[in-house]
Each structure stands twice: as C-alpha cells, then as structure tokens.
Amino acid sequence: ACLAVKLEQLSEKTNAHSGDIMSVAFSPDGTKIVSGSGDPTIKVWDSGAPEPSNRPTLAKTDACSLVLQKVELLSEKTNAHSHWITSVAFSPDGTKIVSGSRDETIKVWDSGAP
Fold first, then answer.
1. What tens digit of pLDDT does each residue of 92-105 get?
2. Distances from the Cα of 80 to the Cαs of 28, 37, 76, 103, in angstroms?
3. 19, 38, 72, 101: which has the highest count of C-beta atoms within 10 A?
C-alpha cells in the first residue's frame, strides 16, 4: 500500500477545457486520462505514464510510484451532451468511456483503445 507518501504535483494541464471540469478518471492501465466538462466536451489525454509493456501492472504499490510526464490531448468529443458532463469513467478493459450529464442521459463511447 502507499504508506506515508508525500503529495506532490506530477503534472499539470492548464486551460484543458473552456468550461468547468466536472469529472476526471484514469484508464485501467494508467496511460490515459478522460475528462468531462461543462463546455460540454469529453477529452482523452495521454497521461505521460509509461506503456504497460514497459512497466509492471498497476497493482498494489506500483500505482504509488507511477511517474507522469506532460499531459497531451489524444482526442475529444465536442458537444458530447446537451448540458454539463458531470461524470466520466473508463470501462474495466479501457475500451469504452461512459459519461453522465445534466441533460439526463448516460452515453457510452469507444475510447479508441485497442
């Protein structure tokens, strides 16, 4: 487990959205981040983490030592909903993204992952 870790900023992406960011989540392998906003756009980011083949799985303490570099935009879906996107998450296998909105809809998206 991650015991007595010092909270340190690893990376930052300014002006990531043009509206309030309501939700963010890592992909199961830690290589991507999905964000949902009031703009209402869903964006998928490269987290800067090493590819899974270059490191052990994100099990137990491996997640504690995950080093992130520069966050880069991979894809986006503008006007994904007709109102604020309040929640986003990856599926357990990382191939889909689910989003929830104040427009009272839930949508499932192809994440573009193999």
1. 999 999 999 999 99
2. 22, 10, 9, 11
3. 101
Over residues 27-77, the pLDDT tens digits come to 999 999 999 998 998 989 888 888 766 555 554 445 455 555 678 889 999
Structure-block tokens of residue 114:
């193999």
Which of 12, 54, 26 lies closest to 113, judged by CA? 26
Return the beta strands (E) in the chain as ranges. 21-26, 32-37, 42-46, 72-77, 85-90, 96-101, 106-110
Give how far Cα 11 sits from Cα of 22, 40, 56, 100, Å.
19, 24, 21, 26
Beta strands 85-90 and 72-77, pairing class: unpaired
pTM attached to this predicted model: 0.74
The span from the CA of 114 to the CA of 107, in Å, is 20
